[in-house]
């Protein structure tokens, strides 16, 4: 009986029991649906074993949307708890678990896969490639991320969730203060997902540098691809320190080492340094691809070249460099001393300069443009002022002396969300709407989309602007309640109303997906937005080989030049056989074994750990020694596919 106690939730409540029931019913419904409609074979052939970058991108997208609502429920529960003084909706422990999982889910399991979705789908098309450099590694990257996400999300109902914040500071996470398995989930699940992300970084750097179409020099790469390149370079340098930190943290918790303890030679601040050496560049891993999306959208719907292409590229490179020199601004208040505080204060302010360059470039692109107010463009136009507010408050936080007042208050929470929601979430929703017709062959409803933009923007302002005021008045973050005497109640109620409006906006997104699937026209052509870059030169739906003939590029907006200046993208219509990689089930199987390994590590089940570790190495050996030369699509088959996609009989 003692063995089974470790799997029980330490602090059960009605919402947790409801979550258990919901998870159980969802699993049963999925299994029943696949069985009833006889889709098991289709699921295995077309999705679980795919190495097609487009399908992997769509799976990342579905995961990100699922996690958006998972993290959104946490957010609404937090705002409901703080809506009135002395509220008892959640107790302290449950609130700690919710704000911890909210942060982890939104940053690592929502924003990251959303970015990976657009990278996977768009980048190979934008550079004229037929796939990524390492297709099987790409599939493994997704399944490691997905299994890490699923492992983390069962924590609420099996063993208990992590409860020390998304930063997981020691000694709060140490076994002395957190004896339950909740924080084991943090160390192990994020480790598994992070390995997948690191593989993605290596894969896309190689793809962008080595697989561009003829004529596409570095100075002709579209802006989203440039942003993906810089973000993936940051991934390759930032994720290894976090990987090491998570391994050390897991050893502290599982094996009694003392890397981060406050006794026996350990140092809790070592965790804070390793975490933020990853954590602050992580913010730019998220925001740089968002900048790339907004650059594509603003240029397309202003009907103008992007203003200052070279300065935009230079500013992204500078941001990626400076991002590694600002991490210590997260502990201005922890006694580093005035010299260190001054250095990190200066670098934190300096990173605002290249970001400001981008804002001005977007404004100059809009200036005298023939602006078309589509849904993606509305997201971009809302982004500029809202993100600028977030940037200005970031400079306020960069002043180390003032940060003593701001640091542990709701002011910081408001700033962070002021950057991430308009910067990353709006960009991803703009990119989702913009690339939806290329992904699925029909457009999302514009009227519902515009309503969504307005609801999210108004809800955002109501939800987070009051936090600046309550933060300056002294409301601390991470506290699950406050007294009526503080006077924070009315503004917190406004924040709750704003969160509710945002929830309605996200519900509208779901309705839009359903409505458009049912009623949208499937006759949208290959370029419904009259866009500018290479991904809009191929068919809807995009064939497995992307381009029947590799395009010839002579500018960063090749499609626009082809439409307006007569540039010939495809020199001659002479089809040749095309080499493609075979599907494989090994990445999915390895992902499942990693899930078992992670679950066993969390609960110290050492025999399953050993067996699953052997299974992982067996899969790696099998994949290494198996001869798989892919397959060829014949020239005749390519010709027939092209005729069919063009509607030629």
Automatic annotation (TrEMBL):
User: What InterPro entries does this protein's entry cite?
Assistant: Cyt_c_oxase-like_su1_dom, Cyt_c_oxase-like_su1_sf, Cyt_C_Oxase_1, Cyt_c_Oxase_su1_BS, QoxB
Record domain Cytochrome oxidase subunit I profile: where: 38-554
PROSITE patterns registered for this protein in UniProt: COX1, COX1_CUB
Q: Pfam family of this protein, just one?
A: COX1
Q: According to its UniProt record, which cofactors does this protein need? A: ferriheme a; Cu cation
Q: Name the pathway it acts in.
A: Energy metabolism; oxidative phosphorylation
Superkingdom of source: Bacteria
**Cofactor comment:** Heme A3. Binds a copper B center.
- Top class in the EC scheme: oxidoreductase
- Residues annotated as transmembrane: 16-37, 58-78, 98-125, 137-158, 185-209, 229-251, 313-332, 344-366, 378-399, 419-436, 448-469, 489-514, 580-599, 605-625
What keywords are annotated for this sequence in UniProt? Cell membrane, Copper, Electron transport, Heme, Hydrogen ion transport, Ion transport, Iron, Membrane, Metal-binding, Oxidoreductase, Respiratory chain, Translocase, Transmembrane, Transmembrane helix, Transport
**What EC number(s) is this enzyme filed under?**
1.10.3.-
Which one of the record's GO molecular function terms can you name?
heme binding
Give the way it sits in the membrane.
Answer: Multi-pass membrane protein
Listed under catalytic activity are: 2 a quinol + O2 = 2 a quinone + 2 H2O; 4 Fe(II)-[cytochrome c] + O2 + 8 H(+)(in) = 4 Fe(III)-[cytochrome c] + 2 H2O + 4 H(+)(out)
GO cellular-component terms in the record?
Answer: plasma membrane; respiratory chain complex
Question: Sorted alphabetically, which PANTHER family does this protein's record hold?
Answer: CYTOCHROME BO(3) UBIQUINOL OXIDASE SUBUNIT 1 (PTHR10422:SF35), CYTOCHROME C OXIDASE SUBUNIT 1 (PTHR10422)
Function, please?
Catalyzes quinol oxidation with the concomitant reduction of oxygen to water.
**Family the UniProt entry places it in:** Belongs to the heme-copper respiratory oxidase family.
Q: Return the NCBIfam families for the record.
A: QoxB
Q: Which protein are we looking at?
A: Quinol oxidase subunit 1
- Record organism: Schinkia azotoformans LMG 9581
Organismal lineage: Bacteria, Bacillati, Bacillota, Bacilli, Bacillales
């Amino acid at each position: 009986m003692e063995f089974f106690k470790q799997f029980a939730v330490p602090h059960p409540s009605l919402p947790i029991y409801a979550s258990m029931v919901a998870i159980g019913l969802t699993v049963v419904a999925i299994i029943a649906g696949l069985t009833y409609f006889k889709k098991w074979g289709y699921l295995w052939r077309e999705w679980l074993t795919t190495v097609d970058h487009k399908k992997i991108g769509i799976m990342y997208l579905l995961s990100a949307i699922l996690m958006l609502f998972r993290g959104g429920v946490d957010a609404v529960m937090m705002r409901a708890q703080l809506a009135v003084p002395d509220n008892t909706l959640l107790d302290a422990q449950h609130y700690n678990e919710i704000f911890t999982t909210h942060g982890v889910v939104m940053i690592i399991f929502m924003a990251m896969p959303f970015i990976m979705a657009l990278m996977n789908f768009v980048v190979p098309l934008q550079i004229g490639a037929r796939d990524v450099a390492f297709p099987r590694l790409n599939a493994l990257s997704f399944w490691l991320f997905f299994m890490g996400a699923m492992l983390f999300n069962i924590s609420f109902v099996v063993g208990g969730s992590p409860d020390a914040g998304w930063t997981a500071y020691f000694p709060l996470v140490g076994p002395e203060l957190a004896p339950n398995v909740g924080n084991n989930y943090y160390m192990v699940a994020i480790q598994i997902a992070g390995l997948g992300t690191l593989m993605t970084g290596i894969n896309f750097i190689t793809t962008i540098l080595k697989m561009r179409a003829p004529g596409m020099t570095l100075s002709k790469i579209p802006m989203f691809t440039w942003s993906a390149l810089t973000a993936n370079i940051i991934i390759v340098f930032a994720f290894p320190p976090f990987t090491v930190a998570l391994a050390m943290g897991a050893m502290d918790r599982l094996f009694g080492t003392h890397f981060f303890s406050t006794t026996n030679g350990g140092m809790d601040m070592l965790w804070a340094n390793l975490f933020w050496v990853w954590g602050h560049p992580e913010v730019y891993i998220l925001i740089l691809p968002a900048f790339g999306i907004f650059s594509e959208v603003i240029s397309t719907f202003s009907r103008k070249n992007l203003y200052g292409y070279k300065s935009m590229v230079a500013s992204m490179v500078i941001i990626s460099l400076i991002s590694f020199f600002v991490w210590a601004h997260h502990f201005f208040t922890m006694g580093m001393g005035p010299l260190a505080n001054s250095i990190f204060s200066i670098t934190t302010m300096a990173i605002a300069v290249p970001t400001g360059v981008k804002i001005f470039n977007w404004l100059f692109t809009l200036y005298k443009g023939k602006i078309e107010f589509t849904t993606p463009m509305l997201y971009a136009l809302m982004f500029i002022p809202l993100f600028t507010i977030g940037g200005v408050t970031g400079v306020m936080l960069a002043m180390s002396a003032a940060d003593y007042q701001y640091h542990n208050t709701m002011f910081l929470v408001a700033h962070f969300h002021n950057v991430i929601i308009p910067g990353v979430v709006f960009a991803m929703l703009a990119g989702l709407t913009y690339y939806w017709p290329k992904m699925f062959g029909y457009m999302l409803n514009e009227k519902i989309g515009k309503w969504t933009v307005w609801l999210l923007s108004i809800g955002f302002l109501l939800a987070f602007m009051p936090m600046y005021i309550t933060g300056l008045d002294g409301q601390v973050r991470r506290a699950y309640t406050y007294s009526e005497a503080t006077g924070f109640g009315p503004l917190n109620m406004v924040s709750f109303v704003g969160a509710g409006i945002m929830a309605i906006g996200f519900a509208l997104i779901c309705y839009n997906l359903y409505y458009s699937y049912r009623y949208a026209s499937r006759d949208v052509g290959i370029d419904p937005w009259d866009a500018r870059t290479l991904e809009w030169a191929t068919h809807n739906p995009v064939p497995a080989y992307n381009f029947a003939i590799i395009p010839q590029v002579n500018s960063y907006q090749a499609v626009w030049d082809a439409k307006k200046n007569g540039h010939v993208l495809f020199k001659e219509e002479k089809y040749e056989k095309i080499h493609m990689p075979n599907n494989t089930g090994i990445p999915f199987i390895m992902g499942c074994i990693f899930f078992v390994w992670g679950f066993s590590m969390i609960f110290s089940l050492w025999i399953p750990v050993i067996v699953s570790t052997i299974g992982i190495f067996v899969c790696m050996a099998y994949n290494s020694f198996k001869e798989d030369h892919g397959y060829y699509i014949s020239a005749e088959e390519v010709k027939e596919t092209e005729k069919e996609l063009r509607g030629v009989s």
